[in-house]
Amino acid sequence: MAIEIQPERAQPAGRGPGIAAAKRRWRPRPGVPAGLIGAVAGYFLGHWLGNLLGGGYDRSSLADTNDVAIVLGYAFGVLGWLAGLGVFNDLFLMMAGKPAREEPRLLGTQEPGLAKYFRYTLDHKVVGIQYLYGMIAYFLTGGLFAMAIRSELLSPSYHLIGPNQYLMVVGEHGTMMMMMMSSVILGPFGQYFGPLLIGSKRVAFPRLEALGFWLTVPAYVILLSAVLMGGFSTGWTGYEPLATQSTQGEDAYFFAFGLMGISMILAGFNMIVTVINYRAPGMRWSRLPMFVWSMFTVSFLQVLSVPVLVGACYMALEDRTFQTAFFTNQLGGSSFLYEDLFWFFGHPEVYILALPGFGVISEIIAVFCRKPLFGYKVSVAGMLGVGTASFFVWQHHLFDSGINPDMRPLFMLTTEIISIPTGFIFLVAMGTFWKAKIRFSIPMLFALAFYFNFLLGGISGVFLSDVPADTTEHGSFFVMAHFHYTIMGGLIFAFFAGIYYWLPKMTGIKLNERLGKIHFWTMFIFFNSTFLPLFGLGMLGMPRRVFEYARNLETLNDWVSISAFCLGVSILIFVINFVMSMTFWREPEVGNPWRTRSLEWQLPAPPPPDNFRRVPVILAGSYDYGVPDALPVADFNPPPGVIGTAYASASGRAEG
Amino acid sequence: MSSDDTAAAAGADASPGPRHGRRLFTIWLVLAVPAVLVIWFAWYPHMPPGRMSDSARHQQFDIAVLAVSAAPVIIAVLLYFIYAIVVWRARPGDEGDGPAIYGNTKVQATWIIGTTMIVLWLFVFGTVELVVPAGAGAGEGPSPIWNLTGKHTAAWSPGANDMLQIQVIGQQWAFTYRYPQFGGMESTVLDLPANTPIEFHVTSLDVIHSFWPYVLGVKADANPQVDNVAYTTVQARGGFKVRCNELCGIWHGAMTTDGTVLPPAAFQAWAAGVQAQERSLGVLAVLPPYALTYDPTVIPQLGKSIIAIDGITGGAGYYYNSSDPVTP
Amino acid sequence: MSVAARAAVLIVAFLGVVGLGVFTAVYYVGAATTQLPVVHYTASSGQVNVVLQEDPQNDSASRPDWVAYYTQDQASKQWVHTTLFSVPANTKVNVTIYGYDGCTPLRNNYFSQVQGTLGGTVNLSQFDQHGKEYVTSKTTSVINSWTDCNVGHTFAIPELGVFVPVASPNAQLSADNLCDSSPCATSGNPYAVETFSFMSPKQAGTYRWQCFVPCGGGYLDGNSGPMGTLGWMMGEMDVVSS
Fold first, then answer.
1. By Cβ atoms counted within 10 A, which residue in A113, A178, B189, C214 is the most buried?
2. What is the ipTM of this complex?
3. pLDDT for C175
4. Are the CB atoms for A394 and A339 separated by under 8 Å?
């Protein structure tokens, strides 16, 4: 919804995917309305088919519910939604031997207005903005559920919302945050700035990229639809066999999680290929900005770990619909199998959430310390090290489960080893701060808070890695506090840092600074006031996901709840600031307010439709602050012949 | 660890000005030493989960050692950031850049070696603390490799260093406790003898639960058809609560039971009394008297057929109907 | 339309959608807890009489037709499709349960024992579908589900230590004649009547009660469905300070 300031252009610009539709009026133009029609039609078709296939199952007739119908309804609904959006149009064109549509943006024409944000588009900058708004909406939804959780926990026994509803709310909150928020930085900033930071006009697979976003919308809707079926009782981990046993809300959980998994895999593929193949000449691996490194690492984690999740979700859905028994011990399956599959994805997932935060913050501290990033190679090694090690630690979630006790020392070691590359992030920060000239802009404040929160989150992780200590802490509020410190205190703080830092570049509009500072301070204070006592609650014996707790813990819980409400108000301040600044105040910021060296800030704001008129030649690294005779970061108008024809002839054809 | 690094950085950076490294190190020492002393001497005795059992005592020791190791690190990093914010903030009107320091091999090497040493220390310490107290109270699966010493006998008597075996059965939503050495008698409260090695066999009838008597420092997941063994020796007498620690459905939060630690003789009297009562009521008849694992699926094989109404039978992984998948 | 106006419309639309979402969420979260009525029982002469019935899964018009407990309203004697009731604190609670469902062997025969009631016993009568009483007012501390077919479900308040097997009509007399429409009536159906008493706790608060026989037809192990939903095989006893 970044609104162009210039008046609409006179000439009719290309209408994207709908060019052909102008002639054929008999079908709706591809877009969100057509997608909605397709989704509803698809859902009812799938539901009907499911009733036809599975209506006679004993399970269906005895339980009065038909999971086959729900799952097929979702599947066909998603296909209908994508068809309505026009995702398959180019595919059919190409299958019919006709050329796929052009991407007018690469020829320098920008479609005016807001309509492009509601369509399946090939412009990575549009996708970035779509992600930004999507992610904020998903985040706020998850946050509202958190408020409901804390309301229930105001009292140790009185039930504001019943136990069913409490589990529903906990599950929705957890799943919304863990699954949708995995794209909170990769989505908006990764898609928008990935190509800009490597000097590319485009991403490798624009269709996959856009599909990645448009899958998050049905994933969100399907996840929320569980509310209408009484929710799902398993929390965000979906442990078996509770999940097989559950009512229909569980289908929504598995389907949505699997769908979001596919979105993550697509986004990961696109990012990997883009970073490898679309770097501008001179953008060596040693000059790659840390943010791009973090996107690159995260993409590998997604591509390698998320398929395991998608597989697990698929198996679980089969257990629920066709009564296979992958996860039922008594029938030859294994509840351990699900735990292993889930956490084999789940632990890299934690770093899928954390690493983008490292990337954003690394960009920001160099700018506001006015110093080169200290130990660039160490920083890269830290990213890659965390990414690699994250595949070898998942059993620490299962220290008490009874799986392979002889492996516990090994997994204790691997878990503790991961703190070495994580420590590099702190080394880099501390080195960068050494004798710096620190400027306390809002992004920098969020960056500082990030280090504070992540320090506490990381150190508490060491307690959890130690098997004896973990015997007390496992599954308690201590764990809850730990991962909220790393994910909310890390990722979400970095997300806000990124918004304040990059929004002027994305839209040409800056957020109100005064409200921004109020937002920061309230968020930082109430975040800590909410989650620090949770460490204590866990140590005092409060398990997760309970709606009743020991009466002596009431004071501490009330403190946490009230802090959480204040934290909610703080987020509300951000929303007000965002809406007002973007819509009504519209304070322009078109230059380079942070005096940043990196590539994206050398472009006008918002960047031109084709990013770079000509592919730039990168001359220097983006962190060369304090170097008196530093070269400009890139030559944006390289003389012809410097770049081979392979680079210069960006034809505008999108092959992806 | 970081204090060394900053000191090294100060040494490596020969620019004039205050000796930041020395200053930071001094402040750190002043803060860290009292913090460590306070944690160890004032906080440690009161740390969770207390000292009611052997495993709890070891966990408390572990948590205290980790806290003592973590506090100086936290203090060092926070101190450094606060120092940086105060000392190295840009003064108003100063639009210049900082010095172009791209890295420092000595600092980086020190940091990497330092963190690696800490990690190795944590690993060695954690492993010792896992092995010595027989698995640290965590569930070790059906064939535990770190055992508590004690005699396994079919009838338990106080003072004979007999291992008391208890089968913990989780079901939605209650724990029941079966005492195989007392004729398989079962109870909804967990009574234990003091100063006796105890072997918990944790299992479940339906979904995953987790057995967590918090002050005993024991935690073991209950999976259906899995025997998850955990050990402890309770030392102090008194009451305690057992909670379920793994989300198991709607009443997970209310799935608590009470337990009491009794003198061994009193415990034996209680257990024998319950056994006699349950034997007279005949509810123990369907199970073998001494069984460490319990599973309703074995009951039909004991000569009882499941009584079905309209073809509906319960349990054992079935969907209440015979046409569903069955165990091969 | 100017850009600002369009933007404003969009923002309003966006907020509208968010607001609708929040409303729906709150409505469902709120409604799901309030849609089940609470039956209030009041004490007379220091005692309170709670009357429940437990019905088989049958072809009743309301869906889902899971096995369910019903609660009888104290004044109107109407059966209410709820499992939430309230009793005063520190009072003798006399419970009467009409059992209409057939028998099942308990998965854990331990729950055949009566525990936590006053005297540790229940009083039991059984009737066949013609109204003939073949077990008359038998006081017992165990209804063994493995020796004979006499237990349908259980009624338990774990926090108070109350665990009671709920008698069913005998299988031989009732196998094909279970009540086929909920709430069940005593005439024309085989049933069992069981009474017992316990003291309500001094501490006000919400105490859950549930059945320990997994009886959700179609669900894995028979759990979930009625076993996992308020209003069927589980409920809440609100203890209010008197």
1. C214
2. 0.87
3. 59
4. no
- Looking at per-residue confidence, does B228 or B316 come out higher? B228
Cα dihedral A391, A397, A399, A404 sign: negative
The CATH superfamily holding the domain C39-240 is: Cupredoxins -  blue copper proteins (2.60.40.420)
> What is the pLDDT averaged over residues C191-198?
92
Chain C nearest-CA distance from A220, in A, is 12
SS (H, E, C) A105-137: HHHCCCCCCCHHHHCCCCCHHHHHHHHHHHHHH
Q: Which two tokens stand for residue A423?
A: 């420590």
Its domain, for residue A269, covers 121-201+224-585
Q: Do C108 and B176 touch (CB under 8 A)?
A: yes
C-alpha to C-alpha distance for C214 and C223, rounded to whole angstroms: 5
Among residues A222, A197, A203, A313, the alpha carbon closest in space to that of A267 is found at A203
Q: Does B225 reach chain A within 8 Å, measured CB to CB?
A: yes
Residue A307, pLDDT above cutoff 90: yes
Chain A residues in contact with B214 by the CB 8 A cut-off are 472, 541
| Domain carrying residue B27 | 2-89+104-133
Q: How far off is chain C from B316, nearest CA to CA, in Å?
A: 6
Mean pLDDT of chain B: 82
Write the pLDDT tens digit of every residue in A119-139: 888 889 999 999 999 999 999
pLDDT at residue A641, as a whole number: 66
Per residue in A243-262, pLDDT (tens digit) is: 988 888 899 999 999 999 99
Q: Does C30 touch chain B (CB under 8 A)?
A: no
Residue A110 lies in a domain: no
Looking at the fold, whether B116 and B7 belong to one and the same domain comes out as yes
Residue of B nearest to A447 (CA): B81
Q: Which residues of A touch C2 (CB under 8 A)?
A: none
Residues A136 and A43 in one domain: no
How is residue A104 written in tokens?
């007018």
For B138, the closest of A59, A436, A471 (CB atoms) is A471
